[in-house]
Structure formats: structure tokens, C-alpha cells
Design brief:
With 142 residues, the protein is of the alpha/beta class. The protein has six helices and seven strands. The chain has a four-stranded mixed β-sheet, with helices on one face. The protein has a three-stranded mixed β-sheet with strand order 1-2-3. Helix 4 (83-103) crosses helix 6 (118-127). The longest helix is centred in the middle third of the chain and has 21 residues, at 83-103.
């Protein structure tokens, strides 16, 4: 990363209010502290960055007439009486998983098989409720 785009953490601390105002109204900031660099952005920017991440599921019809959905991005599955019921349950499972992941972030984000879940976790947390989580089923169904 080019150093010309980073702000020193000491300067950010001393100008915290104006830095936050700038992030909200102008653009995100790269902040450097010793050897670490971080990215400060508002939620609208994060939504934009995560817009290409989608929740997709495969629908499996069961012999009892119910439907099981298996999420492709995260190892989650839910069964419902029909496709819409299964989607509602899977959306709630996604949100619950995201909350649990975030609460134990140090553990889950360092696990090689769970680290790729980070953008989906952040996306679900930004959406904030199961009703807002859109699950796309294979074959273009939503």
C-alpha cells in the first residue's frame, strides 16, 4: 500500500472527530499504527464493497414434501415445510451464525476453513435482520 494514502494513528487520535466526519462524508481512510494498517469506512461503503457477495443455496426436495436448503458459502442447512419456509429458517440461521462468529471473532477468523466466511458474516450483520437476507436458490429462484 502506498504510504501517501495512510494517516498516522497519532494524528487520527488527535483529529478523531474530523477524521470520522471525513470518512462519513468524503471517503474511507487507511490508518497506520507502527506496522499495522487498518481501513476505516462507514457502513454504506461496506455495503457497497460487499454487494457482490451473495447467499446462494441448493434446494433438496424431501420425501415428506418438505424442502431442505443447503447454503453454498457457509456450511448451514435448514429444512422447511416449503421453499419459503426453508428460506426464512436459513436466513435466521445465517444471522445467528454471523452473530456467534462475531462474538468469537478471534477464534473463527483464524480458522482456515472459517476465514472465508468473514465477508458473509459482515454482510449479514450489516443487514441486521433475517427478513433482509436474500437467499438465491439455484436455477434463478429467489
Amino acid at each position: 500500500m502506498k504510504m501517501m494514502f495512510t494517516m498516522n494513528a497519532t494524528r487520527v487520535r488527535s483529529e478523531w472527530s474530523s477524521v470520522v466526519d471525513s470518512v462519513i462524508r468524503d471517503k474511507p481512510k487507511f490508518i497506520r499504527r507502527t506496522r499495522d494498517t487498518m481501513f476505516l469506512a462507514n457502513v454504506d461503503m461496506m455495503e457497497s464493497l460487499l454487494s457482490e457477495y451473495r447467499f446462494t443455496a441448493e434446494a433438496l426436495p424431501e420425501t415428506d414434501g418438505s424442502v431442505t436448503l443447503t447454503l453454498r458459502e457457509i456450511d448451514l442447512a435448514e429444512n422447511g415445510t416449503d421453499l419459503e419456509d426453508a428460506k426464512r429458517k436459513l436466513a435466521q440461521a445465517i444471522l445467528t451464525y454471523a452473530e456467534d462468529y462475531y462474538n468469537e471473532y478471534a477464534l473463527w477468523s483464524s480458522a482456515p476453513n472459517r476465514k472465508p466466511h468473514i465477508p458473509y458474516v459482515i454482510k449479514a450483520l450489516i443487514i441486521g435482520d433475517a427478513e433482509g437476507i436474500v437467499i438465491q436458490c439455484l436455477h434463478g429462484e429467489t
